[in-house]
Amino acid sequence: MADATTLQYTAEHEWVLVEGDTATVGITAYAAEKLGDVVFVELPKVGSDVASGTVVGEIESTKSVGELFAPVNGTVAAANDAVVSDPSLVNSDPFGEGWLIKVAFTSLPTLMTYAEYSELVGE
Amino acid sequence: MPDRYSPLHQLHVDAGASFTDFAGWQMPVSYGSDLAEHHAVRTSAGIFDISHMAEIRVDGPDAAAFLDYALAGKLSAIAPLQAKYSLLLTEQGGIIDDLVVYRGGDRPSAFLVVANAGNRHEVVMALQERSAGFKVAVADESDIVSLIAVQGPLARGIVEAVLADDLSELKYYWGHETTWQGGRCFVARTGYTGEDGFELYINVNQAAELWGALRAAGGDTLSPAGLASRDTLRLEAGMPLYGHELGVDTFPVQAGLGRVVAMAKEGDFVGRAAVEAGPASTARLLVGLTTEGKRAGRAGYPVFDGDREVGVITSGALSPTLGYPIAMAYVDPDAAESTSLAIDVRGTRIDASVVKLPFYKRESK
Asked: CB B296 to CB A91 under 8 A?
C-alpha cells in the first residue's frame, strides 16, 4: 500500500503516484467509502490514448456509479486486471492492490497535495 | 431544515457508520460493507435503525370506519394485533404514501399507522383533514417512537432472547404487545428485506439500550446494517420504494398494488372514483427486469423495445444474492409482454428480460 501522504490527488477523488514518466492512478479511500462496495470496474484498454479530465472508465458499487477520469494526458500502459476480476480490492486496499491504471504521460497537470486533498474532503 | 438525527446516532458513529441524508435525516448508509450487511441479512441476521419512519396513532370509537374512508384498504377487517399494508390515495387515485397499519391488541380502537419519513407531514395532514366528522384523534408520535428492525433467518432467536418472549407462534404481519425494561414495546413480524424478521417499536428513551441489548444477544451472528443494504434487499424482494416505484402520479394498479385497494368495501373512500375509472389504458406498468453481465441499470435509465423508448427504470442494482443485475421499471403495457427489451446503460444497450416479481423469495419452511 502506497503512503497516502506522498501521493498527489485530483478533485475527482483520485490519487496519482508519479514514478518517472508513469502515473499510477486509483481512487481514494474517501471515494471508495462514499461509493460503497464496488461490484464492477471497467478500465480503458492498454495502449489507448487518454486526455486529462475525460472519462476513461467506470467504478460501480451496489448503489451508484462512479466515473474514472484520466488525471493526465498520455497512453494507458497498464490496467489492473486483478481489480476487474475482484472489484472489492478498491474497497479493501484503495491505495495499493486497488490501483486502476498506469498511464505513460506526456504532460502532468498541477495536482493536489495530500494536505490540500485532506482539506477538500474535510479530514 | 437542519439535519435530524436518530436517537441511536451516537451508537452508529461509534460503530464506524457512514451516513447519508434520507428525507432530512442523517441515517447510516453502511457500517463498512453494504454487501456484507446484505449477505448477513440473507444468511444470518441484520439490525437496522429505521427511527426516521413516521408513527401516527389513530384512536377513537370511529377509528376503523375512519381508516376505511381515509385509506385504500379495509382496515376495519383486521383483527386486534394484525397488520395490513395499505395506501393513502389522493382524490385523483395517486399514491401519497404506502403504509403499514397495525391494530391495537389491548385497545382495538387504536391503530398505528407507519409512514415513510419523507411523507410524514403529508400523511399526518391528510389523515387530519379526512378525520372531520369522525370520532377519532390523529396523533403524530414519530418524535417519541423509535423503530428497530431485526431481519434474517436468525432474527427470531435474537429478539426472543432480548424480549424473553416466545415468538414462534407470531405469524407474518401480526404484532405482539409486550414490555421491555419496564417500558412498552410493540414487536411485529414484518420487514422490508424479504427475510423473516421483526420490527420493534420502542420509546426513544429506551431505543439505544434496546439496540445494545439486541447487538449483545446477536453477537457475531447479527450485523448492523444500513440503508444501502436495505435498498438492495428490498429490491431483490420486489418491494416498492416511495419516490421510485410509487408517487402521486402513480395509480396502485400500475405498481401492481391493485389488490391493496379494497374496491369491495362498503362506502366511499378517498380516491375510490378515480381508481374505479382507472388510469388510461396506455398507462405504464411496473415490471421486473433482469440483464446479463455486471452492469446494472439505474433509476432514470431508459428502456427500449427496438428503437422505441418504452419505459424507464425506477430502481436497479447488481443483485448481491443473485449475482446478476435486476431492476424495476415502468414500461408501456405492450412492452410488459415484450421479449425484445433492452436497457440503455450510459450509452450501451443491454438486452433485458421481463421477469415476475419478486426477484428473490426465501425458501419457506
From this structure: no
